[in-house]
Known about the structure:
The complex is a heterodimer.
Chain A: H1 3-13, E1 17-18, H2 21-24, E2 41-43, H3 48-61, E3 65-68, E4 85-88, E5 95-99, E6 104-107, H4 113-120, E7 125-126, H5 139-145, H6 152-155, H7 158-161, E8 162-168, E9 174-178, H8 189-193, E10 202-209, E11 211-212, E12 216-224, H9 227-239, E13 246-251, H10 252-262, E14 271-279, H11 281-297, E15 302-305, H12 309-320, H13 322-325, E16 332-335, E17 338-339, H14 345-359, E18 363-368, E19 373-380, H15 387-404, H16 423-426, H17 429-442, H18 471-474
Parallel strand pairs in A: 2-4, 3-4
Antiparallel strand pairs in A: 1-2, 5-6, 6-10, 7-11, 8-9, 8-10, 12-14, 12-15, 13-14, 13-18, 16-19, 17-19, 18-19
Helix pairs in contact in A: 1-3, 9-11, 10-12, 14-15
Chain B: E1 4-5, H1 15-29, E2 34-36, E3 46-47, E4 50-52, H2 57-70, E5 73-77, E6 98-102, E7 109-113, E8 118-122, H3 127-135, E9 139-140, H4 153-159, H5 166-169, E10 176-182, E11 188-192, H6 204-208, E12 217-224, E13 226-227, E14 231-238, H7 248-258, E15 266-272, E16 282-290, H8 292-305, E17 310-312, E18 332-338, H9 344-358, E19 362-367, E20 371-377, H10 381-397, E21 401-406, H11 409-412, H12 425-435
Parallel strand pairs in B: 1-3, 4-6, 5-6
Antiparallel strand pairs in B: 2-4, 7-8, 8-12, 9-13, 10-11, 10-12, 14-16, 14-17, 15-16, 15-19, 18-20, 18-21, 19-20
Amino acid sequence: MEARILDQFRAIVGRGLITEASELHTYECDGLTNFRVLPQAVLLPTSTADVQAIVRICQREKIPFVARGSGTGLSGGALPVDNGVVISLARMNRILEVDLPNARVVAEPGAINAEVTQRVAPNGYFYAPDPSSQSVCTIGGNVAENSGGAHCLKYGFTTTHVLALEVVLPDGSIVHLGSRAVDRPGYDLPGIFVGSEGTLGIATKIVLRIVKKPAVIQTLLAAFNTTEEAGAAVSGIIGAGMLPAAIEMMDNLAIQAAEASVHAGYPNCGGLLLVELDGPAAEVEHLIDEVSRICTQCGAWEIRVAQSEAERAVVWKGRKAAFAAMGRISPNYIVQDGVIPRTALPKVLSEIERMSAKEGLRVANVFHAGDGNLHPLVLYDRRIPGQEERAMELSINILRLCVECGGSITGEHGVGEEKKMMMGEMFAEPDLETMQLVRCAFDPERLSNPGKVFPRIRLCAERTGPYQPHPLEIAGVAQFF
Amino acid sequence: MATHSSSSSSPEVSVAAAETAWSDLRTLVGAEHVRAAIAEDAVDGVVPQMVIEPGSPEEVAGALKIATSAGLHVIPRGGGTKMDWGNLLRNNESRSGELLLSTRRLNRIVEHAWGDMTATVEAGCTFQRFQQTLAQHGQRLALDPLWPDSATIGGILATNDSGALRVRIGSLRDLIIGITLALPDGTLAKSGGKVVKNVAGYDLPKLATGSLGTLGIITQAIFRLHPVPRESRTLSFSNSEGGTSDGGSMNTLALAIQDCNMVPTGVQIRAGSASTPELGLHELDLRFEGTATGCEAQIEQTLRIASGARRIESPADVWNVRSTLWSGAEPSLVCKFSLLPVDLGTFLDLIRKASALLHLPWRLVAQAVGVGYLRIEGSDVAVLLHAVEDLRKKLESRGGSLVILRCPLEIKSKIDVWGSAGDALPLMRSIKAQFDRTGVLNPGRFVGGI
């Protein structure tokens, strides 16, 4: 990058400019480590004005930029782009305001997810979205990915809890999307911005909605011989008209890994269900009995209800550590994030088993079973030639299976770099073209996290309309990926 | 309301181009589904030229493409219950190039995947019929819109209408998971999907929700569903002895109840001036849903907290009381306001004082999330306009808003019914320009004249 531009950046962020290759390596990937790009520079702004000044330079010089929180994303959303810079929001990490009477918190993008809850917990509130990485991931990253977590079955996703944002648009202007009061007149811009994976601009302040802690929380573990039995229990619980705070499922391989890693005390079984109910005491006590009964009817041979907050924490620790725990049972693994209609679970599980056997690769399964969000973990050994490629192929085929069943290629990890080629399998060309209209309104020059989410770049001057295949495609000579 | 139809061509559309378009539209959907508009089709007092009733999403897209090519303006309509929401159409006097597109025939319930608790429905299906179908499997779309027997799914989405349930369940943005939109260029685009959890691509269902048909015409929507609660209990309180209550007390109680681990699915304040006692002077309605034991326990807890308030019998159909604001003495204004929940008490006092000063009878229904509906009556339109502008100014200065939903045309021609969209308005204009380059859909009716 030209020295004159670096000088301009330095004038804004001072020592918050990283250009040394050894330091830049820290930023070359996010939680998806098999894609790596070294950025030209990393900038660490400390204010909205800094971000605006940086983006204005990027705009003027046509330098692509990628915003980054803690880099825990699992789809390569924060992967740097060639000839671009990374704007790390790590130093904009304050919780600016807590407004308990209105249940609002204003945070900077670099604020850590769990810190929001820690801040309001003494007053009986919590911030509901709880991705497994919540102790390190940032609110800004959650906004970009529309992060979920185990409790979004009942409480919704990040988008449910973001009321307003201050955003630096790719042209360097500052706009305010939404408002602290609900239903601001106009288009639902927070709705479109949250989950846009950093492609529409950079959020510099975020107004969050916090939730009153339920009176009672009960967590139940149920051990089944098979995931099919556990799946039947999930259907039984939902079919009985209950909306638990969370329903999580782990298969035997996932249980083994979690046990090896955090000793959660899980029973050694083929399918483990973790059901959490919360709400008024009378209601929860009544329903937890009902859940136990349904689980027993579906074949559960051991049912435990956590008797204390400490027991509950251990139960959740095992589940939340499940991804990282795979390192205990396999040198390498790929985390996937497909979604299926819940009723397709038995079919999809048996198909995954078949695919796994065919490839000779183990697949551990961890699901948010209540909402059909699967996290198959494809285990492999990079040292064995060809195995990584086969593992990637298998994980992609699992996503294809999800789409075939009417599901999605991502429930909470985002499309990012990793799955953009899969977008064309889930959406037709006119669908993708229409989404890109939004991009053209926010970022006509495609400077903000370019090349992510969509399988191909659409120029904003292109005419919209039904997809017209290129003559080469018709001739079978070429095709868009 | 006086209606008139215009026979002269608008400047943009030649008679020949319009005639060709009408002919093409007849060919597309069948001549029996294209007709000349009549007085009942009037929008803000003016009758459009033609009405088309496509029978499929593809026909909606095809009709839009023809209309766009010919330079026609298209006004989408569902059940027609909220056609007076929004600003006056641009060039309000000339309607020769205007096509009213009704989704009446697009009314299928495509799928109720009850095991997955999702349902796919076409835009023209009425809310009530949809709900009745879902109830067969003990499920519901957890929403309480206005006029459910005639309002359609598409219209409810386009106007982002929701009621008391949102205090617990959220509003449409939290319920819609997939959408099909017909765009002015004839594209039929899907976004979202049939699963509740899905972050693949931009969230167009949310963008379309509340966009008043200015980006595309919703042809189909997919929703997440909730179980019909096993039990539902409502209780009401009043502190309106002699009409002397202060504005804050019921709101203080509402906030206290929400601050103590209970999970009401309705927290509603009804208030009004002494001259409109039919809605109550200042009352609080609470609803609990779930198991019988859960409801009972919460009612007991509520009664302990509300020991200073007078318990009253809840009026019939209390959770639909919002719709009564649309009837009464004319002229009147009906507005939707939003504010921070704690500001509601102050706002009630403000209305009470302002209306007493100006002798304007008023009624209000507010939900605890900070959204409410207000009716003000008064014989002098200028006074009404002044009152509402003043209220809007005060709300906007505190981060809230006031949207006029219904008012005399005389007022509509003088004011942007939406109020301020803030510094994001240019961005909203850019989005509109991307989706609807030539301004075919509902021109002028949305915020800032979009």
